[in-house]
Every structure is written in C-alpha cells, then in structure tokens.
Amino acid sequence: MSIVLSCGNLNKKYGRTYALRDLDLQLEENVIYGLLGRNGAGKTTLLNLIAGGISPNNGTIEVRGKKLGKGELPEDFCFVREKNKFFGEARIIENLQFAANFHPKWDWTLAHKLLETFRLDPHKKIRQLSRGAESLVGNIIGLASRASLTIYDEPVLGLDVLMRERFYKVLLEDYANHPRTILLSTHLIDEIVPVAERVYIIEAGALLLHDETERIRRAAYSIRGNSETVASFTAGKRVLYTESYGHGTLAAIYDKLNDGNIKQAREMGISIENLTLQKFFSYLIEGGH
Ligand SMILES: Nc1ncnc2c1ncn2[C@@H]1O[C@H](COP(=O)(O)OP(=O)(O)OP(=O)(O)O)[C@@H](O)[C@H]1O
Asked: Is residue 140's pLDDT more than 90?
C-alpha cells in the first residue's frame, strides 16, 4: 500500500470562518474515493488546497512523500473543477488539445470515444454548451488525462441520470484497465456507492468519518421498536442518532451485528434495516458523531 496524497492537520480560514479545521486525509494508490459533505462543508476548499490554487493557514500536503510548496501543483495530476475554466470562445476540441499538453499520459483514442459516448460535437464552442455538457467536457479531460491522481469536484453537476450512469460506467471501465487514485466530490451520495471503494465525510470543515463503502453498507442499520427495548439493545453499540416517536425510538447504529444480535433483536420485537449511504450520511450529520 503506498500513499499518493497525505494532508495533515489542514486548516483554512476565510476571515474568521474556518473552511477547514485540522483535517487529515490520506489517499492510497489505485483507490477510488468519494468525498461527501453538505453545502459549505469545505469540499471545494480541500480540493483547491490540493490543487495548489489556495494555500492553507496551517498544515501540510504531501504528494508521494514530497511536501507541496506554495502554489505548487502535484505531478501527474488532473483536477476537474466544479466550474471549469474553459476558453468559452474556443471549441471543445481546442480545449481538449490544450488540456492534452499538460498530461503526458493523455489518450486521444479515449477522448474521441468519450465525445461519442457523451454525444458531444467537438466543433461546438464552449459558450454554446449547457451546464451538463460543460461538466462532460471536464470529465473527458479527467478520464483521458489518465493522471495517476485525478480529482473531480461535482463531476455530475447538471447531468441527467443517463449521462451520470454513462460517466460512472466509463470511469469504472477505464479504471479497471488503468488503475489510478481518484477522488470524487459529490452530493449524489447513493450513486457513488458502486463507484467509490472508500469515502471521506466532512462537516463544517472537519472530518467526521472515513471508511470503506462496503463496511458502511454492512455495518450501518436503523433500528425501530419500543423505546426501552431499543435502549437496551443499543447499549454498548455505536449509536449515531436517535429519534423518538410515540412510545417508540428509531436509532441509527454503526456497528457490525452478527447473526446472534439480529436474532436477539427480532425476539425483542425490534425491526432492523440496513441503511443506504445517503441515510447513513444524514444520520451521521444530524447526530453529530
Ligand atoms: N473565497 C471565499 N471567501 C470566503 N469564504 C469562503 C470562500 N470560499 C469558501 N468559503 C466558505 O468556506 C466554507 C466552505 O466552502 P466550500 O466551498 O469549500 O464548501 P463545499 O463543501 O464545496 O460546498 P458546496 O457543496 O456548496 O460547493 C463555506 O462556509 C464557504 O462560505
């Protein structure tokens, strides 16, 4: 296991507001990560810090063991921004040609194939494109760059469900043949589940949790039942959130339950359901722990 990117104790303030607070993050080689957080959680700030666009007030960013200097870009790196800085008067193909100059592993065969997959006319000017089509141009650059560290800030913004599915599909196909480290920031949490092997969840500039997506899928449950029974069942377990209704309680727990636990819950009249990542995220944020 080798670490591609390591952020240590990152702090970024805008005036008195902390956009990021003591944030630690480590990305391993050849893993796809999801970066999840509400509006204003600090996702774009984190990505801009990694991409050298802004400097931290405190903390370090290391890429493959080498500390990034002020304004320095990681090597073999591609950043697909939420708001791409394309040349509006230039055509799609010209923007791709420009991007290709910065990425030594650029694959033109893939870029042309993706133009077809996403139904983009390469001769259209950027300023004539819809929001979604502009996102797709950024995504083509991210994919065709084959950069060993690629980060996407809201890559599916403005895309309809069909195009979102196509994007995730081609990303996974290309990743299977050309593994690299990918970090995707997104609001569409459940869509990231089949794509991201691990997720980082941030809230108010701080890291709330990072874990394997599959582990969250297997260890996150909602539990409902009589309040006293639920309290007795959840004692000693990691409870993320509780909510009362009438004589009952809903609890979200994050603890792997074995068959014995599940049998015991059923005998106690408690209903148990696995949580979707979206629900897990909401309970984690609402519960604050
Ligand atoms: N240039 C800036 N000047 C002042 N405050 C800023 C600036 N950029 C970001 N912030 C603040 O920093 C915090 C984090 O913002 P950031 O854009 O990183 O969040 P985000 O998670 O990317 O949000 P969203 O999902 O809405 O894009 C917010 O409180 C935001 O208002």
From this structure: yes
Question: Which residue from 12, 20, 45, 185 has its CB within 8 A of the most atoms of ligand 1, so it is best to mutate?
Answer: 45
> Taking the model in full, what pTM does it have?
0.94
89 or 80: which carries more pLDDT confidence? 80
Q: Is 289 a residue whose pLDDT tops 60?
A: no
Cα 84 to middle of ligand 1, angstroms: 17
For ligand 1, say whether the CB of 41 is within 6 Å of any of its atoms.
Answer: yes
Ligand 1 atom 17: residue of nearest CA: 44
Q: Mark whether 37 and 152 lie in a shared domain.
A: yes
Q: What is the mean pLDDT of residues 123-152?
A: 95
Asked which of 213, 236, 271 is the last residue of a domain, the reply is: 213
What Rg value do the Cα atoms of the chain yield, rounded? 21
Element (H, E) at 265: helix 259-267
CATH code of the domain in which 111 resides: 3.40.50.300
The answer to whether 90 and 140 have CB atoms below 8 angstroms apart is no
Q: Does this complex have an ipTM over 0.95? A: yes
Confidence bin at 288 (pLDDT 50/70/90): low
- Residue 249, domain CATH: 3.30.70
- Residue with CA at minimum distance from ligand 1 atom 5: 14
The best mutation among 14, 79, 154, 184 to test binding of ligand 1, ranked by most ligand atoms within 8 Å of the C-beta, falls on 14
Same domain (yes/no): 177, 40: yes
- DSSP character at residue 127: G
Domain count, the chain: 2
Parent domain of 174: 3-213
Q: Please state, in angstroms and rounded to a whole number, the distance separating the CA atoms of residues 188 and 158.
A: 12
Q: Which of 213, 243, 258 is the last residue of a domain?
A: 213
Cα–Cα distance for residue pair 265/85, rounded to 1 Å: 54
pLDDT at res. 85: 74
